[in-house]
Each structure stands twice: as C-alpha cells, then as structure tokens.
Amino acid sequence: MRTPVLGCLVVAALLAACTGESRPSTPGPSGAPTGAGTPSAGQPFVVTPVATLDQPWSMTFLPDGRALVAERPGRLLLVDVVQGSTTAVEGVPEVVDAGQGGLHDVILAPDTGGEPTAYLSWVEAGEGVTGGVVGRARLDVTGTPTLRGLEVIWRQTPKTSGDGHFSLRLAVDPTGEHLFVTSGERQKMQPAQDLTNTLGTIVRLTPDGGAAPDNPYAARGGVSAQIWSHGHRNPLGIAFDAQGRLWADEMGPRGGDEVNLIERGANYGWPLASNGSHYSGQDIPDHVAGDGFAAPAVWWNPSISPAGLMIYDGTAFPQWRGDAFLGALSGQALIRVDLDGTSAAKGDQWSMGARIREVEQGPDGAIWVLEDGEGGRLLRLDPAA
Predict the structure, then answer these.
(1) pLDDT tens across 136-159, in order?
(2) First to last CA, the chain
(3) Residues near 307 by Cβ (< 8 Å), separated by ≥ 6?
(4) Rounded distance, CA 105 to CA 293, Å?
(5) Which residues contact 180 (CB under 8 A, 6 or more apart)?
(6) Which of 229, 298, 346, 359 is 20 to 30 A from 333 (CA-CA)?
(7) Topology of the domain comprising 51-298
C-alpha cells in the first residue's frame, strides 16, 4: 500500500507485534463477554463462557459433542462442553514452545465408523532450526483419552531459524481424499515465490501425507509436487464451503490482511504484491489487475490480524448460512464475511474485548470461539432472544 506508515521500527523481534502476531497476551477484562443470557450492545448473540484455558489455538468437535482443544504450549484437552470440565489427552508429541510455535491445529478425518483418526500439527526442533510437522493418530476416548500410533506424515521444508509464521492450519476436503496444510513463509518472505520449498504455500496431500498425484507441480517431483498454491505469508485459517471451494485467511504485513479463494496453482503474490506495507514503511506494490497474482477476495487496512476460519452451515443462525467467520487478534473481534459463490464482501465485525484465536461451529449450530492467551476462554455463542 502506498501510504506513509508510522510506528513500528525495523527490529525483527518486534515486527510481528504490530499486527498481533506476537506471543499471545492475556485478554483484558474491559469489554469482555459478560456471561450466559447477556448479549452485549450490538451483538445478535448471547455469549456463554464454558472453560478457561492456557493459550488455546484450535478446536474441533467429536461426534459425541465433546471438543478437542489444542493449547499452544503443548497440551491437547478433551472438553465436556456441557460441564466445562477438561481432561488432558495422553500421547501428545513434544513440541517446540517458542514465539508462534507450539501445538497448532487439530482436526478429525472423516468418520470411518471406528476409532476417530486425528490430524495434528506442531513445531519440532532440528539442529538449531525449527519446522512444522503434521501427524496422524487414532484417538481412543474409551477411558483415559489417548492418541495411539502417532506418526509424522509431513514436514515443512526446509526447517529454518526463527519462531514465527508457521501457519499449520489443516482441512480435509469434502471427498475425504485430500489433506490441506497451510505453510507460512517463516518471516523469510522470498521462499514464498520459490517452488523448490514448501514455505509460503498451501500443500495438498493424500491422507497418509504423500503428494496428491494430480497437484499442479506433480511433474517436478520432490516437495514441489506437494504444492497446491503459493505466494502466501502467514495463513492462519482454512475451510471449505458447501460447494467444495477452499478459502483461507492470511495475515498481511502492516495492513493488507486477506481472505482468499484458494485455487489450483495460483500465486497469491507475497512478497511481491500486498495491499499492506512493510513494517519499515517501505512500499509493497498493491494487487492490481493483470499483475499475474491472485488478488484477495477481501482485505483489511489497518490490520485486524485474522486467525481461525469457519464457514457456517448450521440452523441456529439461518441468516448466516454459507458465510465465513474468522477471529481477529489485534482487532479483538469476531468478523463475518459474506460469501456469494466465488465473491466475498465484508459483513459484520463484533467487538469481543479479547483477541480471538479460533472460530468453530458446534454440532447444534452454535458458534464457538477461543480467546487467545493465558486465561483465554472457550465461549459459546447462541442467538439472542
């Protein structure tokens, strides 16, 4: 964006703080949801706090209505969302707990009628470097909840220095045949335009972690064969709509946060095009027609710091069926994006008084959100009377 930028200094350790990408902070009480049965001004929903957690980053629901919640420092919890009680899941891998790294996402594979299969993403160490990985395990909840047979099926390539922009959000397509993983550019920028690595990409894998054979760069072999799209910075939310289209939200630099329709082989421009600016104030060319890059469907300036993405298909809020919901970290809000086929437009932005890390739909159509940071709460949102 070609407007002057004031504020952030060019200090690598501080850059991320400008858009809410820093280590999570404790939510403040001002403006926080007030409890069951009390919608805040301007909110069309009632907010019910269910549990208090330690830096929760992701969640998913089991068929029985309980939820799995991943806490960034390395705990996976089974949550009774009626009682608000939590039980630690055993068999969770050791993670690198630093900066934006830790235990990232958890989802379930499509129901096969037996023990659920869980996919998890986390950060592991190398020789002075770190990298994201994805693992698969059976989830046994018959007694003490336990991950059994956990195996790593994919690794971010290459491992590198630093502790930011891992991304590592997961989604299985509606057919159940492909696993998609968002892979951030690790604050290195240029790798996002290099098809010989998987930094700054979204990869498309088979359920066992191999490259899908019909990927756009399959003929190149190696890790290039895993890539579905590239030119990404730090995509922290990914979800399919009812028609099978894939959407992702992505943190821009200083401004230029995005929601993108993810298409086969598309280049989303980072760091050569962005509707934001470098933290130093240095210009980045805006997205323009004909530049060869896929432009965002929706973008924000100033930053909201998007995290988590859910596309609603429930009945509790029928007016929002088919719309996308995302959390805002620096924006401390829940945001609705109006989806219409392949187009998108900004909808509502509701102040939540805390950084919102994750958004999910519950089995009965309620909307669930996770506040960021130490003491971050699991909140249930129901229609206001």
Answers:
(1) 999 999 999 999 999 999 999 999
(2) 43
(3) 236, 237, 249, 251, 326, 327, 328, 329, 356, 357, 358, 372
(4) 28
(5) 170, 171, 172, 173, 202, 203, 204, 205, 228, 238, 246
(6) 229
(7) Neuraminidase (2.120.10)
Judge contact between 78 and 66, C-beta under 8 A.
yes
Distance (Å, whole) CA 281 – CA 298: 22
pTM of the complete model beyond 0.85: yes
| Nearest Cα residue to 326 out of 259, 246, 252 | 259
Asked if omega into 302 is within 30° of 0 (cis), the reply is yes
Pairing state between β 324-328 and 306-311: antiparallel
- How far apart CA 174 and CA 79 sit, in angstroms, is 26
What's the residue count for the chain? 385
Question: How far is the C-alpha of 281 from the C-alpha of 5, rounded, in Å?
Answer: 5
Residue 181 half-sphere exposure toward CB, CA atoms < 13 A: 35
Characterize the bridge pairing of strands 343-351 and 246-250: unpaired
- 356: closest CA among 384, 315, 325? 325
Active site residue ranges: 165
Q: Distance between CA 45 and CA 351 in Å, rounded?
A: 12
